[in-house]
Amino acid sequence: MDVLILGGTTKARQLATRLVDDGIDLCTSLAGRTKSPRPVPGPTRLGGFGGVGGLKDFLTANEVKVMVDASHPFAATMHGHAAQACLDLNLPLARLAPPSWRTQPEAATWHWVDDHDAAARVLADLPDVVLLTVGRQPISHYLCLGPRRVIVRCVDAPEEELPEGWTVLQERGPFTMAREREIFSEGVATVVSKDSGGTELDPKLRLAAETDVQIVMVSRGPAPGWGDELSEVDEAVQWINAHLATVKSQ
Description:
- This protein has seven helices and twelve strands.
- With 250 residues, it is α/β, with parallel strands linked by helices.
- A six-stranded parallel sheet has the order 3-2-1-4-5-12, sandwiched between helices.
- The chain is elongated and about 60 Å long.
- Pathway: Cofactor biosynthesis; adenosylcobalamin biosynthesis.
């Protein structure tokens, strides 16, 4: 196998599309945390590897030449396992992720926090309605808010029993500005988001800036020490081709 992509993101699907079109032998690995993931071009696998050891076994058994970690910027465990496995095997690794939103001018006005527990503490002093856009997995960190007016937006419904006054919107992005205006019209005064990043703000963040809605932004963790950091699919394609050419010339 030429390339293993750790997928589940838009950039991962875009990269897989490019590589399939180029005839490159690849597989995209999906964590399986979303019940109905979007289809991905080319071969895929579903589920975890069983830690660093399991990932190393997969890479070795399939003679993977390079790996691209294009999983979500907040998939910290997967990032760590990928870096350690590739370091142990001396395998080329690239992380493909959008740039942080920290460089956007509006970011200076946001409440930046290190994790979801810190976000919940900050929310104690911010107004309702609170729009949680952090996915379903971190919801347990916010249950301490109790019976406040909270809207949870996620693809799959949370497993936890939610406090009185909470509403769940099961929706999958990307979201249009028109849809965000509909949601904000419910009285949204505070938005909680993760620094998924991009070259521009997504619609909810642009709308928040227009309407003085408060933003609580959960920061990304530090990048693992092994691998190259890339932000564009074109960069990833060039990186893959360069490494594959080196491998085949040896």
